[in-house]
Write a structure and sequence with these properties.
MetI-like fold; mainly alpha; 13 helices; two-stranded antiparallel ribbon
Length: 297
Amino acid sequence: MTQHAKFNVRQFGFLLFLMLPAVILLAVTIIGPLLNAISVSFQDYSLLSSEHKWNNFQNYIDILKSEDFYHSFGITLTYVFFAVGLDLLLGLGMALLLNQQIKFRTFFRSIVMIPWAIPTIVTALIFLWIYQPDFGVLNYALKSIGLIENNITWLSSFDFALGAIIAVAVFRQTPLVAVMLLAGMQNISRSLYEAAKIDGSGPFRILTSITIPLLKPVITSVTLMMIVQNFQMFTLFYTLTGGGPADATKSLAILTYEVAFERYDLGKGSAIGVIWLIVLLSFSVLFTRLMNRESHR
């Protein structure tokens, strides 16, 4: 073995040594629990019994025949669609505004992340008071300007509960989307905008022909991140409504918790989690491939 080869082996060994703590941490916190959850999903695993029997695919069969699962899956898809869509639209608008030469731009850029920096549970508790039907500021404000006559029970209403949760999610997540899109805009050459203005292009034409096309990689990454994050949202649903009223906000996260820790059926709860994981992984792969195909056209 040559001296150069020995040196490369030493480098590789040192690299493995440096990576070892991270690999161990990853195995203990993610890979291990994931493999255990997959194993449990194939068992009759009740928290009320010490006997755990292997039942092959029975948990998955029961779940895929369950109306609760499809109802919760539909609620989750609805929530993700509107939350992520509004995050992107409002985030893009906020980023465009913060990218302009406006007064106190630096100040606004520094405070825009405050809603996202607040922990989700704290945000949920704040909005519990805002949505409070008798003394909440939202009903008071709407009655003051004449939009409503009677107080609305935002979180106890079948018609308004899911929308109320979406509003809280958008309030918290939009600043992060705006900052990420703003960072992408900073990398677009100013000369492109100046040339477009010289050619007589208006703001809308500049937005659709320059800004959005050049932001596609950032938009793709942000969209995928927001979809994954919102698909597994638990804190807002559990704190604000607990899945009610009448299961109007029972998302997959709430259903998984209910099955595993309220019905004590950890096997079926794990199976829901595995199906959930497969859906997210499949969507992520398909979405990424689709966006890559579009960017190469």
